[in-house]
Amino acid sequence: MYQYGFIDPINDYVFNSLFGFPKCKMLLIDFLNSILKLKNNNCIIDLKYTNNEKTFNDKNINVIAETKSNQFINIVVQINKRGDMGKRSLYYASDVILHSLSKTAPFKDIPNFIMINILNYNIIDPSLVYFEYNNNEEDEEDEEEEDEDDEEDKEDEKNDNEEEINNKEINNNKKVNDNSKEKRKRNEEEIIEYRKSLYERCHSIYTLKEKSSNKEEIYKNAIEFHFIEIQKFRENENIKKLQKKQYRWIKFLICPEAFIDSKKKVFQKAIRILTKLGNDRSFYPYYYQKEKDNRDYISIIEYEKKRFKKGFEKGYKEAYEKAFKEAYEKAFKESYEKAFKESYEKAFEEGFKEELEKVRSERKRKSDIKITLKMFKIGKKLDEVKEFKLLSKNEVDILYNFLYDENTNSSINMLATNLNIDENALKEILDSLEIHYIDKGKKRKT
Which Pfam families match (predicted)? Predict the structure, then answer.
């Protein structure tokens, strides 16, 4: 058995070994019925896996589920995926929906679609929702501005005295500024409450709704995106939610030890699978590497949050002063809120977001190269490694020849150039795996 207790079920490979194969169908059915709160005729009684994987992997779990009322649902479960999860989910959903309908079938036969994203990090950061939330009031502000413009036009027609018109314009602008201050104060109070609710919301569900009625109407049950943030369930204010039947599998993912004596067959089987995986030595390289990748990713997020928090007051003050200056200069053309929003969003997008994506991309590249080399070292064949699609086929060939072809140049500089990666980063990977290379005419000691 794994020396530190049970292996972590939230690990991509472990999760898919628990739920991603036909032999584990009963576990996934119970998991989905619980998370989605499906009961009576809506509950799932059977499902068919549409991705035919025969070995452990970290890919999505795709199934077509059949309910008690003979309805079919396309369901996709993703674990610990990264990178703009909102757009990523939309992209993946479009592909699944596109291929769920035969050429001769009518559109009404398209199954409903549900995507469940289980994330071991917080995707919805309450500290970054200020301006996005304020956007909801833009339409209302536009309508108010149109009404004010109409009133001003009428006043212009009625008044021939230029001095009187100017005085009224000044009074109107003063009234608008006073209203803006009151609205900003009200918005700030609402934002505080909204942020608090986001800290307490561990399970977010997004659907297609008509904007004014806030109802699904013609898209009822057509598509759902679920985002389950595991880290929020660990917080003191949210931990009681794990006692609910809906989240019993989330509790299992966080603390499988609590289910050792469970009398339910699904949890007994899940414990047996975890124990078996913990004793499978061929599973360790994949498990440990994925654990390291997940820890590194979470560390990056935490580091960026701390850095953002540290520089937030300074950046906020600078953006505030710049926005105030611009708003003052454009007092008769546009509102203070719009000027502030433009200058802040530009500063944010060009700084924090760009740098974070760059760091994530570089770390993923290093991880993919390291995993590929590890697979060769444990005896995986060239074609088997290519099937994982971590790197391009050409890059896999380059690494294979570097390791095994005596006629291939063993220069670290040449390899770094061919792989388009920083030489020092590549040295760090090769040194950690004890792979020899030539550096400036001298072979590395092994």
Answer: PDDEXK_2
Say what the pTM is.
Answer: 0.56
- The listed range with the strongest mean pLDDT (142-146, 299-303, 333-337) is 299-303
Specify the higher pLDDT residue, 257 or 149. Answer: 257
Q: What are phi and psi of 118, to 5 degrees?
A: -105, 115
Q: Per residue in 289-331, pLDDT tens? A: 777 776 776 677 666 666 655 665 566 566 656 665 666 556 5
Domain boundaries, the chain: 12-124+202-279, 125-200, 359-443
| 89-123 tens-digit pLDDT | 898 889 888 888 888 889 988 899 999 999 888 88
